[in-house]
Amino acid sequence: MAEAGETARPAAPNGAAGVAQVSVAAVGVEVLRPAAPDGTARVVLLGRQGSGKGTQADRLSALYGVPHISTGDAFRDAIRNGSQLGRTAQGYVDRGELVPDEVVVGVLRERLFPAGSVGPGSTSGFILDGFPRNIPQAEALADLLAPDGLDVVVNLDVSTDEVLRRIAGRRVCVGCGASYNVVDNPPKAPGVCDACGGRLVQRDDDTEEAIRRRLEIYESVTAPLVDWYREQGVLATVDAAGSPDEVTTRAVAAIEAARQRKPVR
Ligand code: AMP
Fold it and tell me: 174 C-alpha vs ligand 1 centroid, how far in Å?
């Protein structure tokens, strides 16, 4: 699955061949800044579809200098490229079903440990968006990260009514995958990506049927991760209602508090 390495999103401070980057300067001036944007934050974002995981992951990636790793973006890119991974994933993604665990764990492993890094335990920091989606995936992640584990799991908490409203306004860039919302987080020019000038479209899987299915799956197999991570003492629930800047500020506060509690690595 060589294609899985193509779309990890390097954070802006690391430069490199990134896509869908949000520069630190582009994040609102009012946003709380991390004390140590040193490329070592290890964060999972949990939350329903439409809770703002993609938007917040881009911003946190820029603020902390760590890659934004989105398994959903990896599948969408692979489908666009017509690769073997894309052909495997397409039916699941179109129906709003989960791609089988062994496939998605393989994609994640390649993102966490791209060619050149020396294998499990060697990754420094990341913002994970869309992984894990169930308890077996969370166990696989813990194995991949051992012995260090995660700094914090940020649970972006927002009501179902609000996520349905947000998904209706959601647009993504066909060029770089950056996400916008026509109401809450519009691009500077309608229909045009601020980052790369690409065309903005609705996601193919943002149909009513697929959204309903994805929300059902979230409640039945992903939501139990909230308690699972709470029991491990790494969960921070953040109110995800409000503007992207407000939510970023709350998320940074939660990450900072968790990192202060953790011993220095
Ligand atoms: P997302 O952009 O995170 O909403 O993901 C879009 C689609 O990609 C999902 O509806 C699934 O079909 C697939 N997908 C993404 N992440 C995972 C995952 N961790 N496990 C299984 N399927 C996934």
Answer: 18
Percent of the chain with pLDDT over 90: 57
* 153, two tokens: 């799991």
CB proximity list for 9: less than 8 A, separation 6 or greater: 18, 19, 20, 21, 58, 61, 67, 68, 69, 70, 73, 177
Q: Residues 38-261: name the CATH superfamily.
A: P-loop containing nucleotide triphosphate hydrolases (3.40.50.300)
Question: What is the whole-number distance in angstroms between the Cα of residue 50 and the centre of ligand 1?
Answer: 13
Average pLDDT taken over every residue of the chain = 85
- Of these ranges, 14-23, 152-161, 198-207, the one predicted with the greatest mean pLDDT is 152-161
pLDDT confidence tier of residue 25, bands split at 50, 70 and 90:
low
Nearest ligand 1 atom, CA 92:
12
